[in-house]
Amino acid sequence: MILYSVIIFAASLIQGMTGFGFSLIAMPILALFMPLKIIVPILVVCSLGLNLIIFFRLEGQLHLKRILVMLVIGIASTPLGVQLLTVVDEVYLKAGVGILIILSSIVMYKGLHVEFKSKQLTYAVTGFLSGVLNGSVSLSGPPVVLMLVNEGTSKNDFKKNISAFFLALNIFTIPSFLAKGLLSTEVMKLSGIGMGVIIVGALLGIRIGEGIREEKFKNIVLGMIMLMGCMSLVSIF
Prior knowledge:
Blueprint (H helix, E strand, L loop, with lengths): L1 H17 L3 H9 L5 H22 L6 H24 L2 H20 L9 H19 L3 H10 L4 H25 L5 H25 L4 H21 L3
């Protein structure tokens, strides 16, 4: 229980600093000693409280039109991800996610900017991938993070928009887990413990993040994504 609390605290601290990273940090580490069918619902429930804190504490411009497109598609594709969680071996899920994250982060880290002809289509595809990953392995962040980095979104706007997206997606994801019987007594107990730890971690992380410069912030974001992709692959073994 102590190890679990430490992991949740560290993950919430990172998300408070960067606007994302909670599930990216917590999922691969928790997967070393807990099954995904327990971890994923816990992380989604805890993320709800975490994103509430971050959204209302951070300044930044909310690009509502962009968020709504990703959100609607993300909500629609989340049940597909939940279905994958119940029928596909978690080894294959984690392997696929890990490889996707690593390749994408390397491309962005090298400074390659991809210009898409249709912004709406880009947001729709991003939302679809995010929803599937959210429902299957609680990793809705990478597609949205990479899209925002590719567009050169400023630090404060990045945090504001990604926390808004996560918050809304969490709200619509929880009923899917409930319908699948994934919100067990154990899940809710561990989620309650996690909520108490998250408050401290998130507030501390927000304060630390205020002092990070824009360019350094981008490097930290991409470095985190690459690291977590590697951790996702390592957790298979």
